[in-house]
Amino acid sequence: MRTVLRRPDFRLLFGGLLASMTAESILLLALAIWVKDLTGSNGLAGGTIFAVVAPMTLAPLVGWFVDRCPRRPFFVAANMVTAVLLTPLFTVADAGDVWIVYLVAALYGLSSITLGAALSGLIRELVPVELLAEANGVLQTVRQGMRLIGPLAGAALYAALGGWALAGIGMVGFLTAAAVVAALPTPQQVPPTMRLRWPAELGAGLRHLAGEPALRRALLGYGLGSLVMGFSESLIFAYVDQGLNRDAAFVGVLVTVQGVGGLLGGLCSPALVRRLGEVGTLAAGVAFFSPAALVLAYPDLRLAFAAVLLAGVSLPLTMVGLHTLIQRRTPPALVGRVAAATQAVVSGPQALSIGAGALLVGFLDYRVLFTLVGVATLAAGSYLWRGRHLSAPPGTRPPTPPTRPTLPAPRRPVEDSDRPVTTGTRRTPRG
Fold first, then answer.
1. What are the structural domains of the chain?
2. What contacts 75, CB < 8 A, 6 or more positions away?
3. Distance (Å, rounded) from C-alpha 247 to C-alpha 241?
4. Engineered SS bond to 20: which of 147, 177, 376, 429, CB 3.0-4.6 Å?
5. Which of 343, 304, 328, 275 is nearest to 129 (CA)?
6. Is residue 232 a contact partner of residue 373, using CB atoms and an 8 Å limit?
7. pTM, rounded to two decimals
8. Which tens digit of pLDDT belongs to each residue from 321-330?
9. Cα–Cα distance between 108 and 28 in angstroms, integer?
10. Which residues contact 268 (CB under 8 A, 6 or more apart)?
11. Helices (DSSP H) in 40-97: which residue ranges?
């Protein structure tokens, strides 16, 4: 990772993203806590997360718009607009203003899709292909680190200063990101647009995902795993309550251990991409979730720490493998649409899985559900592993056999029968 951090342009981008990722990690949980305080309803608080996820349905339109703009100026403008979108939070006073929080959450979710699509294209332009895994690994490591401190910091700041202060801190983070990325010295060019009518351009990202074998297998395998991995969001509370006989607050301890695993996974992910390829790294990330889920089917505190640590390692491996595969296997003019379409395809099963898990945990034993998660993720990881050859690392690709030079054919003596007959120049003897 030190190689990519030696690049001045990436260091500037990294500094800007550090500010915006801090704002994101503080805001998400704090908005839900704010709604809980205003209404006293757990359901309405959970609706805040749904409002953030709902704009994923607009991902194809967002990706099409992102691909029609220069990467760096668009990324700068999107961060500035995101800061402005937070300003209505200063008007929230009581439960009657909850709709403002929902509106800001939905606009924030739309902005998150936009920033993610633009960032994929910007990284693809700034970083050489051989350093894409390192760049994505650095960002995932920092993102996992933010999960350790961001939500806790956001909750503490909210308790001490209130929601308005959090809105101000979030605005500062996004404006800082805009200012830092604006200083990038690399000139950005407008990516070439495809000569298609706009309905066809909207679906170009999905068509590329379906037509590229490595991307198609990656999304199918990861989608299968995502259909059950989201169960753990609800199962972990049942595990702590019924299995460990501890208070729900102990979930925070397990989440912290999971964050440590995320840091380890982020640091190891570039090396795994070089060794296994992008699909192989994605397969490892999904498969690592299987033993973690199976271990959690047996309540034991020591095993719990090992399981959540392994689950934490799996997340950055999947993200780095998937993002690097998209950036390497997608033409620059399509990166925004493909990245946005991937977010929509992946987030759909995840949202369905979280909702299904919340319902199933009320009817089935959590140990049965954890076993189901373990078996399904093992099957998804195996499916991905069988397709690892689709994105084999450079060192494992068979060398191209040298071509032998073609020698000219040997010349043979010219026979009389081979001589050309030139009519008009041969004299006919007189009789």
1. 1-188 (1.20.1250.20), 201-394 (1.20.1250.20)
2. 115, 118, 119, 122, 181
3. 6
4. 177
5. 328
6. yes
7. 0.72
8. 998 898 888 8
9. 9
10. 313, 317
11. 42-53, 59-67, 71-85
Spatial separation of the C-alpha atoms in residues 298 and 341, rounded to whole Å: 38
Query: How does DSSP classify residue 97?
Result: G
Instruction: Please give the distance of CA 135 from its chain centroid, rounded to a whole number.
Output: 13
d(CA 332, CA 344): 20
Whole-angstrom CA distances from 260 to 143, 309, 312, 389 are 12, 7, 7, 31
**Is 312:265 a contact under the CB 8 Å cutoff?**
yes
Q: CA 57 to CA 64: how far, in whole Å? A: 13
Pair 141, 267: CB distance under 8 Å: yes
Q: Encode pLDDT of 246-300 as tens digits.
A: 876 677 678 778 888 888 888 888 889 989 999 999 999 999 999 999 999 888 8
Q: Length of the chain in residues, anyone?
A: 431
* CA-based nearest residue to 343, from 116, 111, 184, 7: 116
Burial of 96 (0-12, 13-18, 19+ CB in 10 A): exposed
Residue 390, token pair as written in the block: 């689709």
Locate 312 and state its tokens. 């934490």
Instruction: Assess contact for 47 and 324: CB atoms under 8 A.
Output: no
What single-letter DSSP state applies at residue 188? -
Q: Give the phi and the psi of residue 335 in degrees, each rounded to 5.
A: -60, -45
Contact 283, 381 (CB under 8 A): yes
Contact assessment for residue 133 and residue 270, using Cβ atoms and an 8 Å cutoff? yes
**Of the ranges 115-119, 252-256, 324-328, 376-380, the best mean pLDDT one:** 376-380
